[in-house]
Structures are given as structure tokens and as C-alpha cells.
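Researcher: Structure for this, please.
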Amino acid sequence: MALLSWLLFMRFFSRGQLDRASDRKEIERKVKEFKTSYNKTKKARSKEGKEGDTLAMRSSTDHVFDKWMYFGSGFYGLAALWTLVVIEFFSLLDLAINLLTLSMFDDGIIAFLIGVATEQLGNLISAFLWFNYWDDSLLVSFLIAYVGYWSGVEAARRNLDLSRERLFEEVRRRIKR
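Model: Predicted structure, C-alpha cell format:
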């Protein structure tokens, strides 16, 4: 959660869309402005029938921002997005295992496709209800997610840069222990 939050907010700070001197209330206010702007731009584009970039602050490949806005933005949206990423990762892992055994087609291709569609709907609902997905108590899940969210925001605000090489080196170092 912290890494996802850091990645998202680092872009805002590095592009100057958020001021690094901002406090939490100012950051929350700006996130609400991003959501309002995103919704207005999306509505205008859908009325015009245009496809493509729905907000000037995004690149054409920024699907993370789209999904974050879809889930409502802010803390709750990022917690839901993180939950969806985890759920989808394990679904893909399960799919890969089933592909190796070809057991997914036991009931036929149509049953498989219906199963995939219902699983996707279930995954989306689970992501929206992220606090029920995690095994911990509601309070513990909320606190862990909230601390992760603000840790990432604060790391981005303080410009704590984490290069890919440094991250891989840290992982390698911990694995060798």
C-alpha cells in the first residue's frame, strides 16, 4: 500500500501538481480537486464521443490513476485498488496453474468464460469492500492500510527517491540473510 501510494503521489509532486510544503489537509483537498476535474473531463469527453486521455495530468499509459479514480480516489480508493491488485495477482496465478493442468476446461469453454466473468465481478466487489477481504479485524485492516497510504504520501512529499537499482539491491541483501 505504501509503495503504491508513493508511486502515485511521487508523480503529483514531481510534476508540480502538489506542493511538497503541503500539509495533509491540503493534500486531501487537492486529491478531491483531481477527482472533480477527472469526472468533469470524463463527462465532457463522453458527451463529445472522444476516446483517449481523460485528464491532462495523466499520460496515456497511466492506468493506475484511472483505477484509483474509479475506486473513488483518496485513501479508500487506493486501498480498494491495492486489494484489486492482490486479488488479480492470485487469480492470474491460479489461472496459470490451471492452464498447466488444463483443468479449467473440464466443464467446457462457455462455462470457463462465464466463470471468468463472474470471478471478475466478484473481484471488483471484493475490492470495493476491501476491509472485508483482509483476514485481520476491520480496525486492524483499516489502520494498516491508512498507515501505508500516508507513509507513501509522506515519502513522496519528502522526495524520498527509491531507485529501482537500490530497491533490487535491498531485496537481494535481505534474501541473503
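Researcher: Any notable elements?
Model: Residues 28 and 141 are 21 Å apart (CA to CA). Residues 51-58 have pLDDT under 50 and may be disordered.
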